[in-house]
Design goal:
The protein has helices spanning 49-52, 224-228, and strands spanning 9-13, 17-22, 27-33, 38-39, 60-61, 67-68, 72-74, 80-82, 91-92, 105-110, 113-120, 128-137, 140-153, 158-159, 162-163, 175-178, 180-186, 192-198, 213-214, 236-239, 249-252, 259-264, 268-270, 291-292, 310-321. The chain is mainly beta. It has one domain (9-321): Beta-galactosidase, Chain A, domain 5, CATH 2.70.98. A 9-stranded antiparallel beta sheet has the order 10-11-12-13-25-22-21-16-19, with no helix packed on it. The model is unreliable at 1-6 (pLDDT under 50).
Length: 322
């Protein structure tokens, strides 16, 4: 399959699911529920917009997903490394030359799975080999990322798919459940902090999805956090318990009966499409058009956790299509 960027697209599918992806930035273009032909993913109307992809739709992001500030870290041999800043004074999603800009290669592929590799040798970080596996098992799309490095380094890799299960203009009528009782707080410049809001407290109730409720209940709240998030949700929810079978996320819509469950071994998930540039126009890209669940280490972990360097890394995510 090819597109107007002269770039090959690849397909894996079974009787339940069809996944279309690109090797450029390892981008997931389509995640289709075949029983009713619903694409669970928000996608650009104009495919040329994937070339710049300012909203990271479907992109694999890293080596350091999320926001990092101060934008620096200490290496295993105590050298300071400055990170580039692509969001004001903040390092976002790996910077200008993050892995979302790089071309992956196929190691092996069959009808229902693909194994990919990226040798990340000329980045800000220490050299590393990255691996990804895309695999379909019945009604589940399994996506895993692994990292290997000779020297301890930075790994925080995830996918930035935006979900819209109904095909409607926004996800306002979707219902959400999140296995989380606390949310990571941010400062006035949107830098993630080592401080957390208790979702069981009244002031944070509008962000509490520990029980199923309509997602638009969190929109346009008068709380200062809502204003910082441009009236939506753009915060990390800390997963209460990581269980290989229990979903961290359940997203539902009633018009077609579509349900998405997400299982992850990561400690946090983060959220919605709120911050839209007035200079960018694409028919499908409007405020609240989709919601992303970036399963990852807690944002800004470099400045929060003492042991942030790893030689080996693995992020396992299961997207269950119902």
């Amino acid at each position: 399959m090819s597109n107007n960027l002269n770039e090959n697209l690849y397909v894996i599918e079974n009787k339940y699911i069809k996944v279309v992806f690109s090797l450029s930035g390892l981008t997931i273009i389509d995640l289709i529920k075949k029983s009713n032909n619903t694409n669970f993913l928000l996608k650009y109307e104009d495919f040329n917009n994937y070339k710049e992809n300012i909203y990271y739709l479907g992109r694999t992001i890293g080596r350091n997903a999320g926001r990092t500030r101060p934008p620096e870290y200490s290496t295993f041999d105590n050298k300071k490394v400055k990170l580039d800043t692509n969001e004001g004074e903040t390092h976002l999603h790996g910077g200008y030359k993050g892995i979302h800009t790089k071309q992956w290669s196929i190691l092996s592929m069959d009808a229902q799975s693909a194994n990919l590799k990226l040798s990340d040798k000329n980045s800000i970080y220490e050299n590393a080999d990255l691996y990804a596996e895309l695999k379909l098992i019945n009604n589940e799309f399994h996506l895993s990322y692994k990292g290997e490095s000779k020297d301890p380094t930075i790994f925080n890799i995830t996918n930035h798919m935006y979900f819209n299960l109904s095909g409607e203009k926004t996800i306002s009528n979707h219902y959400l459940t999140v296995n989380s009782s606390k949310v990571q707080l941010v400062d006035s410049e949107f830098v993630p902090l080592n401080k957390y809001g208790d979702l069981l407290k009244e002031e944070f109730d509008f962000l509490n999805f520990s029980e199923k409720k309509k997602i638009n209940k969190s929109f346009d709240n008068k709380h200062d956090i809502s204003k910082l998030c441009n009236s939506g949700i753009d915060l990390a929810y800390m997963i209460d318990s990581v269980d290989k079978d229990a979903p961290a996320i359940r997203l539902e819509e009633s018009s077609n009966g579509n349900i998405l469950e997400i299982i992850t071994n990561q400690e946090s998930v983060v959220y919605t499409l709120n911050k839209i540039s007035n200079d960018y126009f694409d028919y499908n890209i409007v405020k609240f058009a989709g919601i992303t669940f970036e399963a990852q280490r807690k944002p800004n972990f470099i400045n929060i956790d003492n042991e942030y360097l790893k030689r080996e890394y693995e992020n396992k995510i299961v997207y269950r299509i119902i």
